[in-house]
Amino acid sequence: MAFEKQRQRLAGVVAIPVTPFTAAGDVDAETYERLVERLVLSGVEVVTPNGNTGEFYALDEQETRQCLEVTTKAAREASVLAGVGHDVRTAARAAKHARASGADMVMIHQPVHPYVSRAGWIDYHRAIANEVPELGVVLYVRNPAIEGSDLAQLAEAAPNVLGVKYAVPDPVRFRTVARDAGYERFVWIAGLAELSAPGYFAVGATGFTSGLVNVAPQISLDLFRHLRNHDFAGAMEIWDRIRPFEQMRAAEGNANNVSVVKDALSQLGLCRPDVRPPSRLLTAAERDQLFEILSSWGLS
């Protein structure tokens, strides 16, 4: 099967690294490299520069290129799944840069457009995927209107589409889409991170994305091992430990999704807590709450 190594690795913890900034507000390439190395040395096999936890929509095109290049340098033998998006030309240009830089996969962000037709959704992804047939392509699906038949049609037009990061908060919908698309055709990734992973694994997911992995790689990897082995009791013990952290990220419609991860890394002395608008820094009370969570994990 084509892209077999990539398919195997996507059935695991897919890390979405943060993008650290300097005091002047620029991308901190040196710190970024250290954070990626930390992930890979912990056992992570897929790293996604320019994901949402990496503040993709707050970076300009040159910065996304810089993040991708730093990642391919630091990733060693791990797979690099480069986030691309915006209009078709911009996304295709980013995908070609990812290919030239040594990435072996791209993740196409959900189209940011007020008017998305299902046929247009297929055309958008096909156009980008066909520009880089040598790379595996992962779809980021957040739109509940997308049907399994749409995915099946896209797979016919773009054979290099191999994975689906499914981020619609509905396991029943996920299972329905996966079955209608052809369950074995794609690698199915739970795209809403650790708290959703057990429910999605119960109905067919084989991997999950993670921002928490930046902070505590072994916790995320241990959760995956329990889920892979169908040990849901063991998985839920970990779930209970990480729930307060993930709920902090999810509060106010995920407003602090990135801020919590970066502040945790800051409390561990690994990077600055700075985020770009429309995200915000945590309050003092929120930082204290986060400190207590990290302390309960033995990290602070």
TrEMBL record:
Gene3D superfamilies named among the record's database cross-references: Aldolase class I
Name this polypeptide is given:
Dihydrodipicolinate synthase family protein
| UniProtKB keywords | Lyase
Entries under PANTHER family matching the protein: 5-DEHYDRO-4-DEOXYGLUCARATE DEHYDRATASE 2-RELATED (PTHR12128:SF19), DIHYDRODIPICOLINATE SYNTHASE (PTHR12128)
Indicate whether Transmembrane helix appears among the record's keywords.
Answer: no
Report any Pfam family annotated for this entry. DHDPS
Keyword check for Lyase, yes or no.
Answer: yes
Q: Which organism is it from?
A: Amycolatopsis halotolerans
Which family would the database say this protein is a member of?
A: Belongs to the DapA family.
| Top-level taxon | Bacteria
